[in-house]
C-alpha cells in the first residue's frame, strides 16, 4: 500500500507500541514493569479492536467506502476487505478536484451510495457539496493524526477514535452487527 498511515492497521499499531515501550525501558529501566504492563494492555485492546472490526464489517450492504479527505484509510479498508474511493488531496482546491468531484458524484449516484466519510478536522465544504448533490449522509472518520482540543482535553485514546471509526463505517455501509 502507498498509504503512509501505517497506524490505521492494528497489527502495525502493536509494532509501533512495542518499539515505544522498548525505547522507554532503555531510558527508564526503573519503570520497566509498568511499561510492559501498559504494552500488554494495549496489545490486548488492539486484538479486541481488530476482532470487532472483522465481525462488525463482515456483513454490510455496501463495501464501498467513499472518502472525501486525504488518503489515510487504505491500510484499514484493505485489511477488512472494503473498497476505498477517495477524493484525495490535502488542499482540496484547483481545477482537478472539480473534475474529481464530478466523477465522485457520478460514482455515488451510479452505485447507490448512502453515506460518505470525511475527516473531522477538514473543512466540511467539499463533503457538504457532495451531500447536497447526492443526498448522502456525511459521517466522520478519524486519522488519529490530529485530535480536536475537546478530545485531547478529555484524554480520548487511539482505541476510542478507532471505535468511533467502526461505528461510522457500520452505519455508513449498513452493516449487520
Q: What's the short version?
A:
The protein has 177 residues and is of the alpha/beta class. It is built from 7 helices and 4 strands.
Overview features:
177 residues, alpha/beta, 4-stranded parallel β-sheet, 7 helices, 4 strands
Q: How would you describe what is shown here?
A:
The protein is built from seven helices and four strands; from the N terminus they run H-H-E-H-E-H-E-H-E-H-H. The chain has helices at 10-27, 32-56, 74-79, 95-110, 125-134, 149-153, 158-172; strands spanning 64-68, 83-87, 115-119, 137-141. The chain has a four-stranded parallel β-sheet. The two termini are 28 Å apart. The longest helix has 25 residues, at 32-56. It has 177 residues and is α/β, with parallel strands linked by helices. The chain is elongated. Helix 3 (74-79) links the parallel strand 1 (64-68) and strand 2 (83-87).
Amino acid at each position: 500500500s502507498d498509504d503512509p498511515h501505517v497506524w490505521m492497521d492494528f497489527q502495525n499499531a502493536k509494532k509501533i507500541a512495542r518499539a515505544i515501550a522498548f525505547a522507554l525501558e532503555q531510558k527508564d529501566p526503573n519503570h520497566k514493569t509498568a511499561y510492559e504492563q501498559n504494552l500488554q494492555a494495549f496489545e490486548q485492546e488492539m486484538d479486541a479492536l481488530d476482532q470487532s472490526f472483522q465481525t462488525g464489517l463482515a456483513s454490510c450492504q455496501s463495501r464501498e467506502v467513499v472518502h472525501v479527505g486525504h488518503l489515510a484509510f487504505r491500510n484499514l479498508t484493505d485489511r477488512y476487505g472494503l473498497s476505498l474511493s477517495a477524493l484525495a488531496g490535502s488542499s482540496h482546491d484547483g481545477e482537478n478536484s472539480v473534475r474529481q468531484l464530478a466523477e465522485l458524484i457520478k460514482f455515488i449516484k451510479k452505485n447507490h451510495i448512502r453515506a460518505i466519510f470525511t475527516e473531522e478536522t477538514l473543512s466540511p465544504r467539499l463533503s457538504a457539496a457532495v451531500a447536497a448533490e447526492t443526498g448522502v449522509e456525511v459521517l466522520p472518520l478519524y486519522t488519529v493524526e490530529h485530535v480536536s482540543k475537546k478530545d485531547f482535553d478529555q484524554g480520548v485514546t487511539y482505541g476510542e477514535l478507532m471505535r468511533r471509526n467502526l461505528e461510522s463505517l457500520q452505519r455508513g455501509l449498513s452493516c449487520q452487527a
